[in-house]
Amino acid sequence: MADERDVDELIRYELTGGIARLTIDRPDGGNALTATMRDRLAERFAEISGDLRVRAVVLRGAGDRHFCTGAALGGPQRPSAPRPEGAPDRAGGDAARLIRTGWQRLVSSVLDCERPVIAAVNGTAAGGGAQLALACDLVVMADTAKFIEVFVRRGIMADAGGCYLLPRLVGLHRAKELLMLGRDCRADEADRIGLVNRVVPAADLDASVDELAVAFLSLPTRAIAMTKRLANRSFESSRDQSFDDEAYFQELVVATQDAAEGMQAFTERRDPVFRGW
Hints:
Layout: H1 7-10, E1 11-16, E2 19-24, H2 35-49, E3 56-61, E4 66-68, H3 94-101, H4 103-112, E5 117-121, E6 124-126, H5 128-134, E7 138-142, E8 146-148, H6 162-170, H7 172-181, E9 184-186, H8 187-192, E10 198-200, H9 205-216, H10 221-232, H11 239-254, H12 257-267
Parallel strand pairs: 2-3, 3-5, 4-6, 5-7, 6-8, 7-10
Antiparallel strand pairs: 1-2, 8-9
Helix pairs in contact: 2-4, 3-4, 5-6, 6-7, 10-11
């Protein structure tokens, strides 16, 4: 049965004290994302980049069973373009276009968000939901949670950026094992192979995530944004390109008010007060 709630009830957003909290609130459906929910979440990440009030982002699923189980099957889809008479319902290129403008867009919105994003993996993260968590900058996982690259169980290959993200996080052979076998990856294994930053008791998940989020409130937000951007593109860059980007990005960062505050605080032998710009 379809959830009739407004999309902003299904993708809840709260901004308190510099921390933006995004909650996927569809626990009865495994926190799977309909097309409308997926697109709204991507829009939220884009909006956050331009909001000077935001210093950090926390993403979690409602309830304690699921973080996100990927795409909601049978949910409402975006209307397609008009088709000429006799054209098939699905033509060549349609599926690829849906992937590019759908889940790939969502994962990219997390990678490109100009704020640090922390995933609070409270339960199962499966399919696109696993990729959504792994695209975040920091991943804190409840000891009762698990990742499942479930695609192969359905007879398809991983999408939503899985073959891009996994090898960069855990290396090629471990990534192939997770992607090709589609088996459960429980919290202890995720911690051991470096898939997450930390695993904590489920009861301590929110407190542990908040501790990380609060740490970003006193740090130079633009410097962190540029660090994220440079680190995310490091696997595609040559040394020369990476060093050139580093020099250019640093020039941009040095021009910020936070950089001036940092240098002044150092000179005055006091703690800096960074404001985020």
